[in-house]
Amino acid sequence: MNGSMTRDQAWELLNEYNRDGFHLRHAQILEAVMKHFARELGFGEEEEFWGIVGLLHDLDFEMYPEAHCIRQQEIMRERGVDERVVRAAASHGFALTVDIEPEHTMEKVLYAVDELTGLIGAVALMRPSKSVQDLEVKSVRKKFKTPGFAAGCSREVIERGAAMLGWELDDLIGRTILAMRTIEGL
Predict the structure, then answer these.
(1) CA trace torsion 69, 73, 76, 79 (10° rounding)
(2) Please, are residues 108 and 102 in contact by the beta-carbon 8 Å criterion?
(3) Alpha carbon distance 14, 150 (integer Å)
(4) Interatomic CA distance for residues 6 and 175, integer angstroms
(5) Do residues 137 and 123 make contact, with C-beta atoms less than 8 angstroms apart?
(6) pLDDT tens digit string along 112-154?
(7) Which terminus, N or C, of the chain has the lesser number of Cβ atoms within 10 Å?
(8) Which residues pair with residue 94 across a beta bridge?
């Protein structure tokens, strides 16, 4: 694949290893959120790259949950995927399944928003609108403090991600809500 990968190639690869609609939708949400942050943070020329990392970040999760962020590195390398994509996608498993620490801003954003998009999505579904369009930071914060709510979304990872970026938690939540508003319907 000579290093660079198109969005269509990334989508094709994702679909080889993922069948579950929930996982495919999560990948599309992360793709769009990552592209939004690329533009917002001054990395607009890398928007497509950030999006592909978001799309592929959970490549191995459905088929190899016990080797998440480990097996996908092998799969991507076998396909000749750019090493920057391999590293970035794997880094979101830092301190969980791998010791690849997020270094680039894009890796830190991925780490911070992966779990958070799930939490925000779950809070939005509780609302009469079922939408992030009218969702406020305080609603997410309230549910953030309720350990049983969306228990699979690690608060520790979200907080560590905010700290990596040097952002306050409310700032991260607010910015991620805004990013998710651009992709309503996914």
Answers:
(1) -150
(2) yes
(3) 25
(4) 27
(5) no
(6) 999 999 999 999 999 999 999 999 999 999 999 999 999 999 9
(7) N
(8) 98
CA–CA dist 162, 62 (Å, integer): 26
The Cβ of residue 127 has, within 10 Å, a number of other Cβ atoms equal to 14
- Spatial contact of 75 and 60, defined as CB atoms under 8 Å apart: yes
Task: Give the per-residue pLDDT at 33.
Answer: 97
Sign for the pseudo-dihedral over CA of 6, 47, 69, 81: positive
Fill in the amino acid letter for 140. Answer: V
Looking up tokens 């191995």 gives 60
**Amino acid type, 17:** Y
DSSP-derived secondary structure for 68-131:
TTTHHHHHHHHTTB-HHHHHHHHHTTBTTTB-----SHHHHHHHHHHHHHHHHHHHHHTSTT-S
The answer to whether residues 68 and 93 touch, using CB atoms and an 8 Å cutoff, is yes
Per-position pLDDT tens, the chain of length 186: 435 799 999 999 999 999 999 999 999 999 999 999 999 999 999 999 999 999 999 999 999 999 999 999 999 999 999 999 999 999 999 998 999 999 999 999 999 999 999 999 999 999 999 999 999 999 999 999 999 999 999 999 999 999 999 999 999 999 999 999 988 665
Token pair of 114 as six digits: 């992966």
